[in-house]
Amino acid sequence: MYPFLKLTRVPHSSLSYCSFLLDHCSSHNKSLGFLSTLHAHFIKLGLNSYTYLGNRCLDLYCEFGQFNDAFKVFEEITYKNLISWNVCLKGFLKSGHLGKVCHLFDVMPIRDVVSWNSLISGFAQNGYSCQAFELFVEMQRAGVRPSGFTFSIMTTIVSSPCHAKQVHSKMIRSGIDFSNVVLANSMIAMYGRLGLVDYCFGVILTMENFDIISWNSLIWACYRAGYPELSLEQFHHMRAMEFLPDEFTCSILMSVCSNLQDLGRGKQVFTLCFKLGFVSNSTVSSTAIALFSKCNRLEDSIQLFKEQDLWDSVLCNSMIFSYTKHNLVEDAFQLFMMTLRKNIRPTEYMVSCLLSSVSIFMPVEVGNQIHSMVPKLGFESEVVVASSLVHMYLKFGFIDDALNIFNEMKIKDLVSWNTIMMGMTYNGKVPVSMKLFKEFIREPIPPDRITLAAVLRACNYGSLVDQAIKILFSMEKEFGVKPGEEHYAYVVDLLSQAGMIKEAIDIIETMQCKATSNIWRSVLSACVIHEDLRVIERVAERITESEPHTLLPYLVLAQAYQLRGKWESSVRARKAVEQRVSKEFIGYSCVGIKNQVYLFASNQLQHYGGRDLYLVLNLLLWEIENEGRA
């Protein structure tokens, strides 16, 4: 089959020829069969134990994904040098066997920066960021100097501003050359991911050369940190420096316009995509679909989706998200089924989006069907899918199912912790929620506003006054989260329910943010009977200042006046109520029938088929009345 391999003996001087054959195998994309035949000849001629040839065969087997054969080659090498160990380490890393990587690293006679990089990269790729950071520190203790590649790995795994600044300062002390555009871009992306826009500009101002990735990273960083206008401004600077945007630039810009719900500027970017020939790119098209959807132009999203020649998971995911955003859940599920029929592999975000819509618009049986597909799709270890399953089951009150899924999650991010804590609180499991919070603060993940809102809500439901006050007044110092309106609202409501009206008012008056009428409402409702009339009038006045047309202050005042025998004042308050009668409904009820969810609000059915349902309900009421008379 390969005539030039028919050799009976190869002298040592012909090792270069053997090396040439191996290079030929790699550069010309030869088949695995060619490599196996070549390796067999080496074994026959006794050349398989040579270090250089063994390393080349080892590397090629790893490229072909034949890791068992690669390990056999590694065992055959008589004198293994550092390259042999590193190539084998890289092969195990590529195969996903992190345990074997660790074992091989431990038995290595000598390690260099490549060895450490492989191990750190392995932990980082498998989501073990803390362990990767510890290895980075241990590497330096061992006297191995980090390379630019080491730092590029670290920039992808840092999870806090403190660690990011430590990595940056270590790079400066190590004398890393920041003229390396790739490394500088990774620094911008790192700071952008953490919302440190000032540091992004600090990095880019030290760069001698820029590329389109530099600008994309900066534009994305401004957008992610909540500065959309600044993001668009950087695009204008980029164009002034005569950089031509690529697909990712246009995709980021349309995301910015989508966030601003600025259809005008979004269309300008989309027109630029036509001029540059990017419309056929699925990433650009999917972002445009999301743009039109968020700007309430769903018909344009549907039209653009239909015009696509080829479907992929990115496009379908964007269209499914658009359908669910506009409450067209049945259309979203039909499109999901079509993607399966077209052998388009669903993404974890597509499944998460459908699960979220199930918890709002569809019965739990549909969610169970999607859940049964998760292991088949290999998404059981995906955090976003697991978090959506936890959220769905908690919405329906299936607490044990939600806890089981949460406990089985190998990697828990901030969203998953927030979901389980808030869900447990909503289901009245206050002790469980507080226990989860104690477990969470031992994790390396810092809490955010939602986390602390969840635990304060739990304190509210459980009447845990002391814990709530302690958390409220220590959250900025201990966790770096400034208290917001929602945090104050839970504590004020808790104090009001406990009869501590004075303490609640003191907290409101010392709030770091402006007190809204919602916060005063909880105080007003609690002080009708026990508080002084002047306090009630003062609180009612605060509410009417921000909401002149609301009824609650007048209703409470009418009741308070009546309890204290001030009938004239009570009559005036009730007349004020009659003049401000609101026609808006406050809440609604849901009825699930098969795959349909019907909404009842303010004596009106907000769904197709409402008249028939009311006829059935009237018939049932008539039968109940007749049975009662009988």
TrEMBL record:
Name the Pfam families on file: PPR, PPR_2
Annotated PPR repeat ranges: 112-146, 211-245, 312-346, 413-447
Keywords, A to Z, come to: Repeat
The keyword Secreted appears for this protein: no
InterPro entries xrefs: PPR_At4g14850-like_plant (IPR046960), PPR_rpt (IPR002885), TPR-like_helical_dom_sf (IPR011990)
Keyword Cell cycle attached? no
PANTHER family recorded: PENTACOTRIPEPTIDE-REPEAT REGION OF PRORP DOMAIN-CONTAINING PROTEIN, PENTATRICOPEPTIDE REPEAT-CONTAINING PROTEIN
Q: This protein is called what?
A: Pentatricopeptide repeat-containing protein
Source species, please? Stylosanthes scabra
